[in-house]
């Protein structure tokens, strides 16, 4: 079992078995059927009317007779609830008696390895006995042939004969539920093509032998002879998801039970060598729960101190941004989008990177994509910026913004150029001033680069750029994308030891189209060196296939791949599988998402693959308050905003009040029913 690499066996230590002053050990847990380590309620154990432990009424079902076992067994079976026409979802052969059995129970598995030669001698004498009796009964003849076949296989296949026994101890505090439990266990065994035996007389002995460390007292007449290969098929190998001990991560739900688990998809995989970077690629069609998962992930990272820059085109993060008090940049006619790339916040300085980003911005405003700039123009802009900031240092009354920079060029820098006899062909300052005139006060875009608020973006932990209204604007969009990249790269380089995240929603398509593809490539390749992670979210499969940026730069540099419900693409999933480098097991996991969700709970499932080595499906199940903060349904957003208005625009109080009203309304409906 250990040679498989998936299982590690550890011999139980005495301190695990014994109870301590403030902790109950395995022996006590088993005897009192208690899951909690801090439970100190002692119970009586009775066998008068079946097995009873305190108020728990127990039933013991055994697989201890070869006649009750299935004709065939294997290491796996198909789990139909998660299987599709194209994929078979594999689970362990005995999974029906493990986590899939939805009642309180213990599944005990015994394999006794005795002296093989001694076992063979016993079987040989039994065969001879049956041989002599075979003339009197056809049953003896069949038993003789079976013993003969068993012994032949031991010799020819070099099998190890063992004795095995398996049992399920199930219990409930309600006597009426015992019939339901019996049906559940019988059904689970029927899935394995086995028959259940309800133990009554032998139950105390088997229960006693099940105490951890007391297996030697097991009644051997309740075992059957088999080989190790067949015996291990009945071992339960699946367990619940374990919470990560890492301080970083997100809270998700166990797929089967819904129990909350802490999952680290950033630091722990890198530390364990599963991933080489923290970048993430999220793929999920509309309505698959993509916005909910990304909102939940962003909120979790924000609460752990991460600086997040988010680029969106669908107002999916407005509620979250309002809730945590982040900066929300968007464009509308009454309140257009505003920035101030010339402002240097307190504690910051005019370094080479800041100057380069401003020069890149000025050149983008001045020249078209197909126009080139010469060396002398670049040098002139460098000199202009240097002299402008020297003027600002000398005169503190001048506010740094595009207006004051434009006035400096027009009034002072023009004179400097004439004194230095700079020719028009080297730097045409009049052309520069004319082209940039719309961004100066009184111009069409005078608001864009002259912001007087939301200036300290370096220290702001959540910044959302909503580009929906300007994604097709030929002037505004290129400027805004340059500023976004400058903001994040500034955070990336200046915030030492602080986690940074840039999340680009569907806006990546527009950004790539505007010649910003190199920025995205640069980010995905270098962000890991600065304790950062880049995340790209996309809806359509065609986007992946058609975009060389996504195909090469993003996918190849994203070790964490997150997929939501792909059922609509299951007939062409082979393309996605090949592009993302998913294994057949991962394909089966992805296509099983949302196949058998609990109808009584409202949640969506999400598939997470870490480095192609560790893949799991989790629930994204949020509270009603979180749902109201993240929802993208227009009617719910309008209603929530109305609630917030009642509390003077306080979104938190609005959400709390709306959630309370919704819960009370639901309770009222249930009473009416």
Main traits of this protein?
9-stranded mixed sheet; 40% helix; 23 helices; 673 residues; 7-stranded antiparallel sheet; Rossmann fold; alpha/beta
Characterise this structure.
InterPro entries: Conjugation_ATPase_TraG, F-pilin_assembly_TraC, P-loop_NTPase, P-loop_TraG. It comes from Flavobacterium nitrogenifigens. It holds the Pfam family P-loop_TraG. This is Bacteroides conjugation system ATPase, TraG family. The chain has 23 helices and 20 strands. With about 675 residues, the chain is an alpha/beta fold. Among the domains are: about 40-115 and about 160-235, no CATH class; about 250-340 and about 455-630, P-loop containing nucleotide triphosphate hydrolases (Rossmann fold, 3-Layer(aba) Sandwich); about 635-670, no CATH class. A hairpin with a 2-residue loop joins strand 2 and strand 3. Helix 15 packs parallel to helix 16 (about 505-525). The protein is elongated, with a radius of gyration of 34 Å.
């Amino acid at each position: 079992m250990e040679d498989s690499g998936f299982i590690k066996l550890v011999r139980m230590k005495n301190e695990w078995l014994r109870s301590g002053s403030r902790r109950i050990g395995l022996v006590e847990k088993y005897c009192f059927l208690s899951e909690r380590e801090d439970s100190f309620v002692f119970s009586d154990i009775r066998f008068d009317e079946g097995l009873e432990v305190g108020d728990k009424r127990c039933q013991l079902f055994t697989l201890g007779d070869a006649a009750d076992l299935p004709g065939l067994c294997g290491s796996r079976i198909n789990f139909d609830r998660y299987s599709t026409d194209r994929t078979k979802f594999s689970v362990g052969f005995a999974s029906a008696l493990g986590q899939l059995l939805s009642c309180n129970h213990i599944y005990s598995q015994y394999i006794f390895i005795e002296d093989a030669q001694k076992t063979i001698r016993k079987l040989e004498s039994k065969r001879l006995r049956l041989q002599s009796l075979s003339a009197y009964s056809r049953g003896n003849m069949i038993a003789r042939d079976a013993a003969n076949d068993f012994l032949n296989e031991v010799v020819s296949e070099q099998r190890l004969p063992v004795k095995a026994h398996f049992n399920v101890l199930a219990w409930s505090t309600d006597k009426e539920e015992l019939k339901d439990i019996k049906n559940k266990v019988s059904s689970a065994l029927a899935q394995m093509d086995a028959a259940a035996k309800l133990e009554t007389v032998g139950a105390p002995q088997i229960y006693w032998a099940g105490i951890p460390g007391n297996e030697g007292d097991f009644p051997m007449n309740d075992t059957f002879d088999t080989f190790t290969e067949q015996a291990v098929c009945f071992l339960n190998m699946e367990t619940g998801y374990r919470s990560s001990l890492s301080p970083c991560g997100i809270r998700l739900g166990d797929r089967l039970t819904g129990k909350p688990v802490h999952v680290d998809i950033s630091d722990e995989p890198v530390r364990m060598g599963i991933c080489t970077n923290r970048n993430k690629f999220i793929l999920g069609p509309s309505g698959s729960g993509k916005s909910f998962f990304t909102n939940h992930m962003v909120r979790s990272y924000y609460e752990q101190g991460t600086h997040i820059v988010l680029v969106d085109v669908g107002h999916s993060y407005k509620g979250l941004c309002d809730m945590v008090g982040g900066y929300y940049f968007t464009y509308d006619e009454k309140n257009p989008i505003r920035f101030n790339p010339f402002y240097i916040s307190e504690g910051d300085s005019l370094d080479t990177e800041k100057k380069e980003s401003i020069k890149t911005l000025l050149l983008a405003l001045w020249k078209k994509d197909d126009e080139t700039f010469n060396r002398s123009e670049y040098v002139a802009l460098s000199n202009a910026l240097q002299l402008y900031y020297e003027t600002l240092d000398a005169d503190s009354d001048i506010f740094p913004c595009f207006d004051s920079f434009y006035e400096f060029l027009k009034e002072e820098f023009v004179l400097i150029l004439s004194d230095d006899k700079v020719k028009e062909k080297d730097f045409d300052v009049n052309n520069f001033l004319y082209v940039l005139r719309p961004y100066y006060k009184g111009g069409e875009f005078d608001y864009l680069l002259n912001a007087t608020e939301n200036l300290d973006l370096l220290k702001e932990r959540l910044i959302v750029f909503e580009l929906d209204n300007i994604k097709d604007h030929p002037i505004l969009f290129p400027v805004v994308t340059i500023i976004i990249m400058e903001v994040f790269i500034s955070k990336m380089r200046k915030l030492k030891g602080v986690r940074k995240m840039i999340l680009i929603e569907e806006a990546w398509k527009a950004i790539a189209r505007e010649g910003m593809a190199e920025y995205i490539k640069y980010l995905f390749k270098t962000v890991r060196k600065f304790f950062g992670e880049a995340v790209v979210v996309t809806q359509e499969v065609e986007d992946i296939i058609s975009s060389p940026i996504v195909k090469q730069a993003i996918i190849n540099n994203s070790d964490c791949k997150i997929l939501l419900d792909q059922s609509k693409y299951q007939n062409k999933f082979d393309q996605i599988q090949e592009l993302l480098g998913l294994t057949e097991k991962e394909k089966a996991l992805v296509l099983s998402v949302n196949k058998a969700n609990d109808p009584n709970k409202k949640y969506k499932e999400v598939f997470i693959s870490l480095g192609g080595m560790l893949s799991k499906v989790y629930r994204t199940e949020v509270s009603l308050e979180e749902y109201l903060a993240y929802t993208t349904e227009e009617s719910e957003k309008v209603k929530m905003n109305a609630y917030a208005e009642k509390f003077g625009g306080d979104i938190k109080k609005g959400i709390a009040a709306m959630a309370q009203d919704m819960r009370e309304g639901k309770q009222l409906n249930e009473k009416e029913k």
